From TrEMBL:
Methylates the class 1 translation termination release factors RF1/PrfA and RF2/PrfB on the glutamine residue of the universally conserved GGQ motif. Keywords: Methyltransferase, S-adenosyl-L-methionine, Transferase. It comes from the Bacteria. PROSITE patterns: N6_MTASE. The keyword Protein biosynthesis does not apply. NCBIfam families: hemK_fam, RF_mod_PrmC. This is Release factor glutamine methyltransferase. GO terms for biological process: methylation. It catalyses: L-glutaminyl-[peptide chain release factor] + S-adenosyl-L-methionine = N(5)-methyl-L-glutaminyl-[peptide chain release factor] + S-adenosyl-L-homocysteine + H(+). HAMAP family: RF_methyltr_PrmC (MF_02126).
Amino acid sequence: MSVREIRRAATDVLTTAGVETPDVDATLLLAHVVGRTVGELVLVDDLTDDQLSRFHELVRRRATREPLQHIVGRVQFGSVEVEVGPGVFIPRMETELLWSWGCEVLAAVADPVVADLCSGSGALALALADSVAGSTVHAVELDPDALTWLRRNVSHLPQRVRDRVVVHQGDVRDPRILAGVSADLVVANPPYIPIGADLPVEVAEHDPVLALFGGDDGMSVITPMIETIARVLVPGGAVAIEHDDTTGALVMAALDTSGDFEGISQMKDLSGRARFVSARRAKMKP
Ligand SMILES: C[S@@+](CC[C@H](N)C(=O)[O-])C[C@H]1O[C@@H](n2cnc3c(N)ncnc32)[C@H](O)[C@@H]1O
């Protein structure tokens, strides 16, 4: 069989298994097995027996709906790559919007301080630390399993970035968390899915429950976390909170109700989908 036929057969297996993007996944698994980029696959005209049996094994795992990212063990996020696996939330491409927005916000701030609340693998924290020169980034995470991944990812950073990331184990709703920290930017991708939402197998069975659900309305972490954000941000400092498709108005209302924020805005992606809410710490209580 040619490499093309091998890939097509794998795509068929993944299609039958209900994988959402079977062709992409088959291609990425093949690239992983041969140690090439997707673009370089055109240069590969044969697989060794070992590569072929590894590829079949990985396709078999993907066909059980094990996430592709767990199989290859890593995810590219913004300017960094993070390791992921069981026990930690897989960073999503849409969250890169918070990273790029954060980089823009900080462009005019010298040596900024950032807090990443609900940090998981550390994707946002690490990408911001890597992209924003002179920044210090505080990453807060509650789950001990996720913290293990977070600390491992920090340890793999080049030292010039690693030295500027501070990991905190704790609850973002705790009034003592980040005591003494004054941040120019807070980003948060908290658990926000309303309980009962229908989820793909990859998410329901492999992302940690603590990473996913935000109570009946998706707000059980976000609402109390807002007090922490108001306490930590300097006057004029910026915040971005990712949310469920259905809860943008609730997040805006929660920020508004606190009375501590201004310029509360619904931010959308290029397809017009509401992704996160941004705001600035009010300079004085209105
Ligand atoms: C949706 S994941 C996001 C992870 C990461 N920021 C990202 O974008 O990939 C939410 C994370 O929040 C953590 N978490 C949940 N409740 C928390 C809390 N009360 N305090 C701190 N972290 C919490 C979960 O363990 C999980 O790692």
